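Quick start: read one record
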Amino acid sequence: MKIVFTLLLFLTAVSVTFAQKDSLKLGDRYADDQIYASISYAQFYNQPTPIFKSNFSYSLSLGFIKDFILNKEGTISVAGGVGYGFDFFNHKLKVQEINNTTIFSSDAAISSNLFQSHNLEFPLEFRWRTSTANKYDFWRIYGGVKFLYNMSNQFQFDDTNGATFNYNNISNYNKLQYGLTLSAGYDEFNFNIFYGLTPVFENATINGEEINSKILKFGMIFYFL
C-alpha cells in the first residue's frame, strides 16, 4: 500500500509540474529537471598492487534536485538536491572485520566476493542547456560535485569450503565521500560520469601498501520535470 501511495504522489507531483510549465510564457523564469534517476557501470580505480580489476559491478541512484536560474533565458543555473544511491561491487579485495579491526588481504581462492553500500547523495551542479519556458526537448551539459554519506555497507565472500562470511559497517569505511560529476545529452538520454576523489577506506593497508581505492561510475542518467 505504501508503494502505491508513493507512486501516486510522485505522478501527481510530475503532472502538477507539467501543468505549471505549460502556463509559462517565453521569457518567464522557470526551473527544470527536478527528478533524476541513473544506472551506471561501476569500478574501483587506483587499486593496490595485489588487487586486479573487479568483475561486473553497477550503481543505481534516484533523487530530487532544485534549479536556481542565473539568467533571464533560463539556460544557465545552479542546482542542489538530495537522493539515494545503491552500489554493488563484485570485487577482488578480501575484507574482514575482527574485534573492531578491519583486515584487508588478497585471496584468489575465495568466490562471490561482494560489496554493497546504501548512501545518501547530495549533488551540486552548474548547468547549461538550450531550453526555454515551453521547450521540453533540449541539449544539456551539467557539471558539478556529488557528496555521499554512507548509511550502511556490507562485505560478503564465500571461502573454499562454501561457508559465507558477512561483515557489516566496517570500521575503516570512509562514510563521507565525494567526487566530480558530468552529465551531457539530449532530451531524456544523457551520459553520466562520477569520478570519486576520496578513498573508499580510511587508514587502510595491504601488505604494507596504502589502499587508496576510489570509485568510478559511468552510465545513463534520466531527468524528469
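DSSP finds one helix and 13 strands in the chain.
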